[in-house]
Amino acid sequence: MNDYEEVRLARDCPAVAVPWGTVTALLAGALARITQRLGGSYTVVVDGNMYRVDGKDADALGFEVESQDGAEPAEPLTAEQVELAAWEKLATCYDPEIPIDIVNLGLVYALDVTPLENGRYRIDVQMTLTAPGCGMGSFIADEAQSKLLSIPGVDAVDVQLVWDPPWSRDMMSEAAKLELGML
């Protein structure tokens, strides 16, 4: 039996329906069962349907909104530092249905950092999804792009969804397989 936390929504809040990726609003007073709290977002079940709620709306669930003030390190000086920060940011992106980040799921196929003429950087990412028909695909890619753009010194990010090679469970890290009981 799972021990999920249940809360009443303190206010209306935006949410994304899982797995379709459609934006909707959850109404104040609704009973929400929190099934996942990872990567600065929440996966909740309301009236039998699953939704993802962004961390900026944590107060609607009765939690404190985490401040981003001063959370970023000084501006990276090298492409290597930017790449390391990029992998760390991508490891905070989660599929709302699976409690494993996109890096450990093996969804990130390539990450390239390119220095720009102004001393800043561009990041290009090729990633895939566990299934081509996943409605959350563009949402997950947009979240990855947003988090990568928050890295000091990064001016541009391009996240492309690719389907070749097709994703398989063999691409998951051992830690991910262990977490999901596959080892």
Can you offer a commentary on this structure?
It is globular and about 50 Å long. Strand 7 and strand 8 (121-127) form a beta hairpin. The protein has helices at residues 79-90, 137-149, 174-179, and strands at 5-8, 13-18, 23-26, 31-38, 41-46, 49-54, 108-115, 121-127, 154-161. It is 17% helix and 31% strand. The protein has two domains: 5-61, Roll (SH3 type barrels); 79-179, Fe-S cluster assembly (FSCA) (GMP Synthetase, Chain A, domain 3), CATH 3.30.300. By secondary structure, the protein is an alpha+beta fold. The model has no long low-confidence stretch (mean pLDDT 90). The chain contains three helices and nine strands. The protein has a six-stranded antiparallel beta sheet with strand order 1-4-5-6-2-3, with no helix packed on it.
What's a quick, concise take on this entry?
By secondary structure, this protein is of the alpha+beta class. The chain has helices spanning 79-90, 137-149, 174-179; strands at 5-8, 13-18, 23-26, 31-38, 41-46, 49-54, 108-115, 121-127, 154-161. The protein folds into 2 domains: 5-61, SH3 type barrels (Roll); 79-179, GMP Synthetase, Chain A, domain 3 (2-Layer Sandwich).
CATH hierarchy, class of the largest domain: Alpha Beta
CATH fold title of the largest domain? GMP Synthetase, Chain A, domain 3
Q: Which regions contain 5 or more consecutive residues with pLDDT less than 50? A: none
Question: In the CATH hierarchy, what is the architecture of the largest domain at level 2?
Answer: 2-Layer Sandwich
- What percentage of the residues does DSSP assign to strands (E)? 25-35%
Query: How far apart, in Å, are the first and last alpha carbons?
Result: 22 Å
Q: Rg to the nearest angstrom?
A: 17 Å
Helix content: 10-25%
- Topology, number of strands: 9
On the 0 to 100 scale, the average pLDDT is 90
The rough form would be described as globular
Number of helices: 3
Q: So, the CATH homologous superfamily of the largest domain? A: Fe-S cluster assembly (FSCA)
Integer tally of domains: 2
Strand arrangement within the widest β-sheet reads: 1-4-5-6-2-3
Secondary-structure element pattern, one letter each = EEEEEEHEEHEH
* Computed structural class: alpha+beta
Largest sheet: 6 strands, antiparallel
